[in-house]
Structures are given as structure tokens and as C-alpha cells.
Design brief:
About 30% of the residues lie in helices and about 25% in strands. By secondary structure, it is α/β, with parallel strands linked by helices. It has a single domain, classed as Rossmann fold. The strands form 2 sheets. A 6-stranded mixed beta sheet has the order 6-7-8-3-9-10, with helices on both faces. A 4-stranded antiparallel beta sheet has the order 2-1-4-5, with helices on one face. Helix 4 packs parallel to helix 6 and helix 6 runs parallel beside helix 7. Bound molecules: adenosine-5'-triphosphate (ATP) and magnesium ion. The site of magnesium ion (MG) has 3 residues, from helix 2. The site of adenosine-5'-triphosphate has 12 residues, from strand 1, strand 2 and helix 2.
Amino acid sequence: MPAQQELSPLPTTRQNIAAVDISRVGKTYHSGSTSQRVLDDLNLRVERGQFVVILGRSGSGKSTLLNLLGAMDRPTTGRININGVEIGEMGDRERTLLRRTSLGFIFQAYNLIPTLSVLENVQLPLALNGIDDDSTAIRLLDELGLANKLDASAEDLSGGEQQRVAIARALIHTPSLILADEPTGNLDVDTGREIIRLIDNLVRRNGQTLIMATHSQEVIGYADRVVTIRDQHLVDA
Ligand SMILES: Nc1ncnc2c1ncn2[C@@H]1O[C@H](COP(=O)(O)OP(=O)(O)OP(=O)(O)O)[C@@H](O)[C@H]1O
Ligand SMILES: [Mg+2]
């Protein structure tokens, strides 16, 4: 082999691209004449397929960080790289496309559309991507124990059922990165435990990356890594 080729760098493969790689990220909110620095100089690299838990007291900036990672808000300083792409350089349309194709969101308040049926709620991300197929949604809802609720209105479900629908909606388009913000915050302990087990199972089976903000110590047992936001900084717990 010619010397020149021996010296050339190894080609970049998908394996060594981090799911998330942020550096020196800061976020300051401004309202009127006051400003509040919430995050300062955050660095975090999350490998593909990892489950990372973010802890921190109320108001420490967990949701702020998830909003930045989910391209829903922009940092004041620093850069955010998702799947090898700098999202700071993306325009709004590209960011919307990234959210629709590569990201899945699970919220504490479920955020289902109450007037739509269970099946319609879950199909929504596919519909937004121009895919008209209900077989994947039906299979996923079946796995989540909701086969008998496909046509029910989302507003008629219990909290645990609504969160299972929200999980299906977050996973239906097989996003590579799932961001979950206190997904068990409104549920009783047993239901919360079941929800975490379901999310962990589905996400690991598909090799997806999961970043979850939580107050629940119990969730830590499922995580590959636990970080804490403290005094605006990110520290390994
Ligand atoms: N859009 C906003 N504009 C101004 N300030 C905000 C905004 N969003 C959050 N904040 C402030 O930033 C701080 C961090 O809020 P954030 O919601 O990220 O905390 P959190 O860790 O998620 O808290 P919790 O555990 O209660 O959900 C809080 O003081 C909050 O008031
Ligand atoms: Mg929060």
C-alpha cells in the first residue's frame, strides 16, 4: 500500500459520531431589564445508544437543557452537535425537520391532542413526515398494552395510559435521540416504574439514545450515566 494511503485518517463511521456533543454551552434568559444565567459552560458527550439521566433541583435548568438539545431553543453561548451536525448553524426550517425526523419528545404533561383518538395522536409524527401508514402505530400501541384503546379519545385515558400513548408518539418515527422531561412526574410510583421500564425496553431494543430529566432516584438504576446540574454547571453524579 502506498505510504500516502497508510497515513490517511480512518474514515469517519457512524459509530464514532456522538449522539450528542455539546461544548461550552451557556443559557441566559432576559426579561425586561433583568437577566438570569441558568446554564454556564456545559460540556457533555453522549454516545449513541446511551441512557443518560439528568438530575438537579427544581429550577436548576434541566428543561432548559433539554429544550436546547431538542432544537426548541438556542443557547446564548457554545455549540450543540446532534448526530454529527451543528444545530446552531441550522435555520428554523432545518431545525423543524431535525425534530420531525430524528428526535422524539416525552413530557411530564403528556401533551397529547385531546380531541384526536389514541391512534391519530400516535400517527401524527408519521403524517407530518408524509407517511400514511397505521400498521406501525397499531403494533406499537399493542406492545404498550393499548390495543383496546385505539379509537378512544386521548382525553378519556388515565394518566398512565396517556403517557404510554405519548411514548408511542415519541417513538413511532424511530428517532435516534429521545428527550424525556420528567416523564413520571404526574404518575403514582407503580405506574411511573412501569413507564420507565417500557421506555427503557423499547429504546434499548432499537439502540436509541435517551436523555431523561427526572427527580426520581429510582430511574438512576436504569441509566448508563447520571449527571447533575448544580450552580449552572453540569457535573457527573
Ligand atoms: N422561557 C423562559 N424565560 C425566562 N426564564 C425561564 C424560561 N424558562 C425557564 N426559565 C427560568 O430558568 C430556570 C430554570 O428553569 P427550568 O425549567 O430549566 O428548570 P428545571 O430544572 O427544569 O426545573 P423543574 O425541576 O422544576 O422542572 C428557572 O429559574 C426558570 O424560571
Ligand atoms: Mg423542568
